[in-house]
From TrEMBL:
Coiled coil: none annotated. It comes from the Eukaryota. One of its GO terms (biological process) is enzyme-directed rRNA pseudouridine synthesis. It comes from Papaver somniferum. GO terms for molecular function: pseudouridine synthase activity; RNA binding. This is Pseudouridine synthase RsuA/RluA-like domain-containing protein.
Length: 479
């Protein structure tokens, strides 16, 4: 929280020195920005007190590779030993994501949102306007409750702005419960007025999707009807946007490509690194209708998966740990509270491994997979629909998807050291829950980062109402 975080001088100095060494050399970053990142990095656990902030999942986007790309706004003039070109807009889009930075603010004096954020975090007004346009700014009428890890200063500010005598004077929360007033919403207008006491969360470095600007979106449209649009989603894009970026999404770019006056609605999701058929509703009403069809299991999806090893034909069943964080862990054993995952492998055929030029173009990372002579294209009927289901299940049987840099490292680790996976066939017996918990943490650490652009996975067919509506994607990228 800006103005509410008290840092240890020793920790700050140490981290700034580390960031200067690593990122000034590689990214050309100003010291003012490094200082801010040091503040955010050291206290990222405390920052989670504000709900939707996701530092844990974003730390894997750190990059130390050399780049001349500019990452967002310049906060002040560059220092002579660390040049940083001045750039005050979110476009053009960087080729890779910048370091994570989320600011948490409590408004001390009411005023226009644009002016307040610009002054509070020293950002150009046009850049803040872009952040609002991207959906990267949120507010709550009352500051969220701090977690046990909050600092003394954070707790002090929370108590000040939520004191009953203070809240009673705020007409905006009259009639609302304390919990209702703490709900977070997007800021949608640059001229919106925020009153004193309002909590703000500003995602200064939204997750970016450069591939959106490389795609011929009209060529990706499979069908257009009065109720919906079928899109052949390109890999490396988000269907409906992320927490901090609703601008660079398939729904937004498909809407523009078709020249529609009303925005398309997201009806279901597939992973950013997956390509293939996606249904976008043209109205809110049909969006609800399609959601109903999914709940009633009237929607059938077929996938093509390019596996790094053979996959047996037949039904594959696992149980997925009910924790909403990647990597998704699965077990063949029935476990109370875990979600059943089922897919049916209809066929599996040997195909050539993707060429080096194709892998380079789509930034395919196979993480040292030892055998690259041939791959195995599998047609899969998805019987249940869980996040990362196909990816996690195929990796669990030793046949990870080509390019899946999150699950391939774990598959390699288990092959080299059977029993490392606590949920695998060779999983060990643990004497205590603490021992098992430690084993799970070590297993999660064997997984890698989320793929940059594509993996060998395509939603090749989608149909509903017993095939009355039937659509196929075009040729997958690996062919």
């Amino acid at each position: 929280m800006s103005g509410a975080v008290s840092l240890s001088a020793v920790l700050t100095k140490s981290l700034i020195s580390s960031l200067r060494t690593t990122y000034c050399r590689n990214l050309g970053m100003p010291m003012t920005l490094i200082h801010s990142l040091a503040v955010t990095h050291v206290f990222r656990k405390q920052a989670k007190m504000f709900g939707l902030c996701s530092y844990g999942s974003r730390t894997k986007t750190f990059s130390t590779s050399s780049s001349t790309t500019t990452f967002g706004a310049t906060l002040s003039n560059s220092s002579s030993d660390c040049p940083y070109p001045e750039y005050n807009r979110l476009l053009p889009c960087p080729s890779q994501n910048g370091l994570p930075r989320v600011e948490h603010l409590v408004v001390r004096e009411g005023g226009p949102i644009l002016e307040y954020i610009s002054k509070a975090v020293d950002l150009p007004p046009q850049f803040v306007a872009d952040l609002i346009h991207f959906g990267a700014v949120y507010y709550a009428l009352v500051c969220p409750t701090p977690p046990p890890t909050a600092t003394t200063e954070q707790i002090k500010i929370f108590k000040e702005v939520t004191d009953p005598d203070v809240l009673r004077k705020r007409k905006s929360i009259k009639g609302k419960t304390f919990r209702e007033a703490q709900k977070t919403f997007r800021i949608t207008r640059v001229d919106e007025f925020v009153e004193a006491g309002t909590y703000l969360r500003v995602h200064i470095h939204p997750k970016r999707f450069p591939r959106c600007y490389e795609i011929d979106w009209k060529s990706r449209i499979i069908a257009v009807t009065e109720s919906y649009v079928i899109l052949d989603k390109p890999a490396g894009t988000s269907v409906g946007g992320t927490t901090d970026n609703i601008e660079e999404s398939c729904a937004t770019f498909a809407t523009r490509a078709l020249g529609l006056t009303d925005p398309l609605w997201t009806t279901h999701q597939i992973d950013n690194c997956t390509e293939g058929c996606v249904v976008l509703a043209r109205t809110k009403q049909y969006c609800s209708v399609f959601h109903g069809k999914i709940r009633e299991k009237k929607v059938k999806k077929l996938y093509l998966a390019l596996a790094a090893a053979p996959v047996p034909v037949g039904v594959v069943t696992h149980y997925m740990r009910p924790v909403n964080v990647a990597p998704r862990l699965v077990s063949k054993d029935i476990t109370k509270g875990w979600h059943m995952c089922q897919l049916e492998v209809l066929e599996c055929k040997e195909v050539p491994w993707p060429t080096a030029s194709t892998e380079q173009k789509l930034r395919i990372d196979n993480c040292g997979w030892p055998k690259k002579d041939v791959a195995y294209e599998c047609k899969i009927n998805l019987l249940t629909g869980k996040t990362h289901q196909v990816r996690a299940q195929l990796a669990a049987i030793g046949s990870p998807i080509v390019g899946d840099s999150m699950y391939i490292p774990a598959a390699i680790a288990e092959a080299m050291n059977p029993g490392l996976n606590p949920f695998g066939e060779d999983g060990k017996h643990y004497e205590s829950e603490d021992e098992r918990t430690k084993a799970v943490e070590e297993w999660m650490a064997q997984h890698g980062k989320e793929p940059s652009i594509a993996i060998g996975l395509q939603a090749c067919q989608i149909s509903w109402d017993d095939g009355e509506h039937f659509y196929e994607a075009r040729t997958p990228w690996w062919r």
